[in-house]
Amino acid sequence: MDIKMNKEWSLDVLYKGFDDVKYQKDKEELARLTTEIKTFSETLSSGPLKEENLVKAVKYLERYHVLSYSLIAYTGLNQYANTSNSEITNQVNVIERKVSEASKSLAAIKKYIARVENLSEIFEKYPELKGYEFILSEISEDAKHLLDDDVEDAIAKLNISAGSAWNSMQSFLTSTLEVEYKGKIITLSEVRNLAHDKDPAVRKEAYEAELIAMEKIKDAVSFSLNNIKTQVNTITDLRGYSSPLQMTLTQSRMKKETLDALLQAIREYLPAFRKYLKHKAKVLGHESGLPWYDLLAPMGESSRKYTVEEARDYLIRHFSNFSQDEADMMKEAFDNAWIDFYPRKGKVGGAFCENIPFVKQSRILTNFTGNFGDIVTLAHELGHAYHGMMIQDHLPLNTDYSMPVAETASTFNEAIVMESAIKDADGMEKLALIEDQLQNVTQIIVDIYSRYLFESAVFEKSREGFLFADQLNEIMLDAQRKSYGDGLDPNFMHPYMWVVKSHYYSEDLSFYNFPYAFGGLFARGLYEKYKTEGEAFLPKYRALLKATTVMSVEDAAKQAEIDLEDPEFWRISLHSYEGLIEEFIKLS
User: Fold this and answer.
1) Of 48, 205, 336, 388, which residue has the fewest beta carbons closer than 10 angstroms?
2) Distance, CA of 54 to CA of 319 (rounded, Å)
3) Average pLDDT of adjacent 10-residue blocks, the chain of 588 residues
4) d(CA 195, CA 206)
């Protein structure tokens, strides 16, 4: 494979550029379709219900979903790869405006669907609707929270210059922030990546440089956070939800009882993770818990660097032993430019995967530096792509899975890679791998719990007034104290975690934190079942992933014979890490 040809992803499967004839035609078609849907929706406002209108409505929703998502995905992916390009930003705004114009009509259609009382009879009469039994029932339930058509239209249009704009500002400020480090100017992503450096002085200096750099943007980003959370609180109230959390759980197709069971088990096992953190602190020479800048400090000897080709070969080899269909998908992803690998100025930090089911592909963004952790990240994101492959043959409206199950296949992949790597290693390399896994688990359990506490507090306190940067810092520190406890050095915490985490800055996706804990522990529980059942587990696993777009979280889990409302399932998952913690203490 020619690495130069695959350094950045190709989006040609969607469009070949903003001047592509297909892109221009699709924009025009979106405008025509929006007008057509508007005309159709106006015929639904009065008169008796007509079954044939339900069929027409579904066809319109299908066409609109595929067309609008093509344009949204293309412009959005371009922006994530280059936030400082003005042409891309302009196109993102154009598409957002076009999409917002249909909100009133789409709300009217969904309200019409909600008026249909005999859905079960209609499914029998119109077989083409049978595959939409779950989604139509969900639309009918969600329509109870829809507002007047004009209000829905106003919310969508105002959001472009409100929540969406505040989101873009946080993304722009953090991706273009200049950080002064050792006399040089580097990006925020680059300085944060130094948290993994072997040199303790580098880690500490990078941490200090990051905190200093945050001072430049903290006030501006605080306006982003305040206004987004205020907007969500307002819309939550208007729609009749008791809280943003209730709205999120409804969107997540998840019961509060499931979240309560998950959080109960997490709180019970926090002492085990604090034990790990305190031992790591002691090994690194700290007496008062682990300072933030050493949370991701590597231990053992695992300094080997991997090329992208080596990462590809490693993953394909290991996943061929698990499931050949996933290994084949991974090969396609590497060979056919699904992945944008390297960090650069203007590109967002972190990593993500965007499924594009109607072209049967995904796109993955990483900030690859060659560490083994980057291979784990690739496995994680390719897990999302595998999840996408499992649902790509669904009907167009059946391709969205909810937040909690979104991290299932990705974290399951991490378990496969790490368990295999640890098994094959010994000595200091084994220590390094175990420590790396405990780092990751601590992030999705302990740190994610702190993020959940932080966001809960911000939603509550923002109702009382504006939260200035210093107040947000204190809320974050309080959340970290409650979650990390004495495992973290109180003199070296991270008050600005609210600035750097993009998950807080979505106007339509709140609490994107507990899904990571859910996904991690759900996947771990699934992996334990796989180790027990072997190949007999794979059909259940695939069925579960496929069901995530057409069932509730709880019902999807039942495909693998799991009760998510029982804390015991979560305890079993968490208990499996206690052995790793003890082995880490022994080896170190």
Assistant:
1) 48
2) 44
3) 66 97 97 96 81 91 96 96 94 94 90 83 86 90 85 88 94 94 94 93 97 97 97 96 96 96 98 98 96 94 86 95 95 96 90 96 96 92 97 95 89 91 88 90 96 98 97 98 98 97 93 92 93 93 96 96 95 92 93
4) 7
* 288/294 Cα distance (integer angstroms): 13
- Element (DSSP H or E) covering residue 112: helix 103-115
The two tokens of residue 46 are 């009065």
Tokens describing residue 89 = 């930003």
Pairing of strands 361-365, 339-340: parallel
DSSP output for 407-446: THHHHHHHHHHHHHHHHH--HHHHHHHHHHHHHHHHIIII
Sheet arrangement for strand 339-340: 339-340, 361-365, 352-356
Both structure tokens of 374: 């980057």
Q: Which two tokens stand for residue 476?
A: 């974050």
Matching residue, tokens 């604090």? 274
Q: Indicate the helix (H) or strand (E) that contains 355.
A: strand 352-356
Amino acid at 193: N
pTM of the model: 0.81
User: From the CB of residue 65, how many other CB atoms can be counted at a distance below 10 Å?
Assistant: 16
The DSSP code sequence of 500-554 is H-GGGG-SS----SHHHHHHHHHHHHHHHHHHHHGGGGHHHHHHHHHHTTTS-HH
For the record, the structure tokens of 337 come out as: 């430019």
Supply the DSSP symbol for 299: -
Residues 6+ apart with CB under 8 A from 95: 27, 71, 72, 75
**Radius of gyration, CA atoms only, the chain:** 24
Q: What's the CA gap between 121 and 56, in Å, rounded? A: 17
CA 379/CA 420 separation, integer angstroms: 13
7, 103, 13, 94: which is closest to 355 by C-alpha? 13
Q: Say which residue the tokens 């979650």 belong to.
A: 483
**340 DSSP 8-state letter:** E
For residue 525, what are the contacts with CB-CB under 8 A and spacing of at least 6? 562, 569, 570, 572, 573
Classify 11 as helix, strand or coil: coil
Q: Look at the alpha carbons of 162, 165, 171, 173 in this order and tell me if their dihedral is positive or negative.
A: negative
- DSSP for residue 533: H
Q: For residue 86, how many other CB atoms are within 10 A of its CB?
A: 7
- How many CA atoms within 13 Å lie on the side-chain side of 290? 25
Token pair, residue 403, equals 């937040």
Neighbours of 56 (CB within 10 A): 15
Pairing of strands 184-187, 178-181: antiparallel
Of 138, 160, 163, residue with least CA distance to 233: 163
State which H helix or E strand residue 540 sits in: helix 538-547
